[in-house]
Design goal:
This is Ankyrin repeat domain-containing protein 29. Keywords: ANK repeat, Repeat. InterPro entries: Ankyrin_rpt, Ankyrin_rpt-contain_sf. There is one protein chain. The protein has about 180 residues and is mainly alpha-helical. The protein contains ten helices and no strands. The longest helix is centred in the N-terminal third of the chain and has 9 residues.
Length: about 180
């Protein structure tokens, strides 16, 4: 289920993608000032996605102000910046993406949402933030829900938060 993407060797990566991935905010500003755009590489990984993956909220802000597409999905799994930021527990970045209009209930090609990723990894603050923004307890294509994966991983704080939010305790997997 892990969606982390290694960017350093991917075809089609631009200088802006690398600078965003590494969190070089001043370089990102210079590149944008020179006309660089938030162009994804061949796998659909954009500079905004890369910065979100690493939790570089300052770079995320710069890219969003320059018009980066908060909905740009990777071509492999259909993952979006919000999902990868949630998976990695980057609360500040998640907040910025939500404020920019990210779809809190976006499902990738496997049906996974940001809430499922945050629950799976035990990021309780991100779970609270997503629920506050209207995230729903949506199971993926295999019937795995945020409550299920948080329970499986033993994240009792996340389980408690999800239960308080009304998560379905009877949601069962659909595949063996």
């Amino acid at each position: 289920m892990m969606v982390s993407i290694i960017i350093s060797t991917q075809e089609g990566a631009t200088a802006l993608l690398y600078a965003g991935w590494k969190g070089h905010s001043e370089v990102v500003k210079l590149l944008l000032g020179a006309g660089a755009r938030d162009i994804p590489n061949k796998d659909g990984v954009s500079p905004l996605y890369a910065a979100s993956q690493e939790g570089h909220s300052d770079v995320v802000d710069i890219l969003l102000e320059a018009g980066a597409d908060v909905h740009q999905a990777t071509t492999k799994n259909g993952d979006v910046p919000l999902g990868i930021a949630a998976q990695n527990g980057h609360t500040e970045t998640v907040q910025r993406l939500l404020e920019a209009g990210a779809n809190v209930n976006h499902q990738n090609k496997e049906g996974a949402t940001a809430l499922l990723y945050a629950g799976w990894k035990g990021h309780s603050e991100v779970v609270k933030l997503l629920l506050g923004a209207g995230a729903r307890d949506i199971p993926n294509k295999d019937g795995l829900s945020p409550l299920y994966v948080a329970s499986q991983e033993g994240h009792s704080d996340v389980v408690d938060i999800l239960l308080e939010a009304g998560a379905d305790v009877h949601q069962a997997t659909t595949k063996v």
